[in-house]
Design a protein that fits this description.
Structural class: alpha/beta
CATH architecture of the largest domain: 3-Layer(aba) Sandwich
Largest sheet: 8 strands, mixed
Number of strands: 15
Number of helices: 8
Number of domains: 2
Strand content: 25-35%
């Protein structure tokens, strides 16, 4: 096909800002992200499991053609130092099967001892494990980024069996669907992005979880609805703004898990929740933090 229905965004950025930039662009709707050398700098073979990066990295992100350039620029600016905003270029590109390419590059991932996330078409390596199948593509969350993997490891270690779950900012629905696989009675998956809600519903059907998962906009969530577990993998500023909203959906004893938080942002986010939640020691991975606690 030759229809032009993607926007290609290119940004040259220092290595130190790549991970946070990947996260924010994926959160606002990037279909795929690729990294390349921005300065013709050769790299040596990396250690096993390491990601090779250059000191200057050219980040290329693909968005649906309906994505507003202003929203992308604001997302980039939100994670850059004041006065250090890099040039951002936009180009229209012809339709290609970018999702299929991304799918081919993904492998099954394990969280905890037995929880697996398997891309569509890939078998779970552990027949005795608890596996969910996810279609990568139009919403954030295949489990590969530290913000998501922190939540997935937490769910694997503290399965919500017999409990109700609120997944606020659900993206692809990975956390809610994993909760169902681990025995949750019902899940409310909330997002402001209809594309994310569509992906969540599709992934729920793929995992035979449609009857126990409801995907909806925040306005569709009943004001008095309370849950046993609340998870939110968003960004720190949004998490702080959401503290009074999430409080309304907790009862005494509700367990919360918050991710999408850089290490230096963790204390400010925790402070926003301490008035009504006993917070645990933060868990850190690759500069990102998971905050958990219990509503009082």
């Amino acid at each position: 096909m030759t229809d032009t229905n993607f926007i290609k965004v290119q940004i040259d950025v220092d290595e130190a800002r790549v991970e946070v930039l990947e996260t924010v662009l994926t959160t606002v709707g990037a279909v795929a992200i690729e990294l390349a050398d921005a300065a013709d700098e050769p790299i040596v073979e990396p250690a096993p499991g390491a990601t090779p990066l250059w000191r200057r990295v050219r980040l290329t992100a693909l968005f649906e053609s309906t994505m507003a350039e202003t929203e992308i620029r604001l997302a980039v600016a939100s994670v850059m130092e004041p006065g250090a905003l890099p040039p951002v270029t936009f180009d229209a590109v012809a339709n290609e099967d970018w999702v299929a390419k991304l799918r081919d590059e993904l492998i099954p991932l394990r969280f905890g001892e037995k929880l697996w996330v398997c891309p569509t078409g890939k078998d779970c390596p552990d027949p005795s494990g608890t596996a969910i199948t996810m279609e990568p593509g139009l919403a954030f969350g295949t489990g590969i980024h530290a913000t998501t993997s922190l939540c997935m490891d937490w769910l694997a270690a503290t399965p919500p069996a017999g409990r109700s779950v609120l997944d606020f900012g659900c993206g692809s629905g990975i956390l809610g669907i994993a909760s169902l696989a681990l025995g949750a009675t019902r899940v409310a998956a909330v997002d402001i992005d209809e594309q994310a809600l569509t992906a969540t519903r599709q992934n729920a059907r793929r995992n035979r979880g449609s009857a126990r998962l409801k995907a909806l906009q925040p306005a569709g969530l009943e004001a008095a609805a309370a849950f046993d577990v609340v998870v939110a993998n968003i960004l720190s500023g949004t998490l702080m703004e959401l503290a009074p909203v999430l409080r309304k959906h907790c009862r005494t004893g509700t367990t919360i898990a918050l991710s999408g938080i850089l290490k230096e942002q963790a204390e400010a986010v925790a402070d926003a929740y301490r008035g009504w939640c006993d917070m645990n020691v933060p868990v850190e991975r690759d500069g990102w933090v998971l905050l958990t606690g219990t509503a009082i």
